[in-house]
Please model this.
Amino acid sequence: MSINPMTLQDRTILVTGASSGIGRETAILLSELGARVILAGRDRDRLEETRNRMQNGDHRVECFDLCQADSIPEWVKRIVSEVGPLHGLVHSAGIHRAAGIQMANTARIDAVMHSNVTTAIMLTKALRQKGCAARGGSLVLLSSVAGLAGQAGISIYSASKAALMGFVRSAALELAPEGLRVNCVAPGYVDTEMAQRFREVLTDEQYQAIQRMHPLGIGQPRDVANAIAFLLAETGRWITGSTLVLDGGYTAH
Ligand SMILES: NC(=O)c1ccc[n+]([C@@H]2O[C@H](COP(=O)([O-])OP(=O)(O)OC[C@H]3O[C@@H](n4cnc5c(N)ncnc54)[C@H](OP(=O)(O)O)[C@@H]3O)[C@@H](O)[C@H]2O)c1
Model:
């Protein structure tokens, strides 16, 4: 009999950003590993598209705008009342805005921080509510190498992704007595719609420079999904407060 240490059989996992890119691929992989997945995003048709690509299971689609951050705890409570305690959360919803510092204004800064940081904190708070997370639960937040290594023109996004790395360190200590783990993954450039939109504002030279910075090439969503599954499953049992870098060598320079 073969043993799969990354099995997620009988686990219920909430995946935000499941309508696109990394979140979509993660939802598909988690279903292949046996999990029941709650697919969250704003675009119902695209969430249904993800569900159609998943392994059979009692997966659910949940349309919700995470920018209504104050409503997140109540939203999670309602989901839990219908599906039972969550064994995991993958927070892949997020936005990327390329803009130089001279373009910064409070509206732009708040939009990025709210979408990328406030939502993560409120989701963590939501899972911390009594009965919402199963003991041994694992939370994985999508940070980025942009939070570790600088790149001109993306400083607000970089600040938001660095904030998540700080958040998981303290949150890990606070949640450990509850038997909950919380970690980040920090991908390099991954071929998704977000990356394609970013590609459109780059010159060919800038894009080639990014490619050269990834000695193993540009990443695929499955490269990130594999690491997320590792952190969710029993394989991640002893890992909390960490940031797992997945970047094809980008930060090795
Ligand atoms: N791609 C990369 O190169 C890369 C690298 C490092 C880190 N990351 C991070 O990885 C995560 C996923 O990126 P991706 O490339 O997969 O992006 P993507 O293809 O643009 O997908 C983003 C997802 O976020 C959801 N979303 C955005 N705002 C939302 C809101 N207010 N409420 C609910 N859902 C919302 C979108 O869903 P709806 O449109 O349905 O609402 C979509 O499913 C992001 O946090 C990103 O910063 C990406």
Strands lie at 12-16, 36-41, 60-63, 86-91, 133-142, 181-187, 243-246. The chain has one domain: 12-188+220-246. Residues 94 and 120 are 9 Å apart (CA to CA). The radius of gyration is 17 Å.
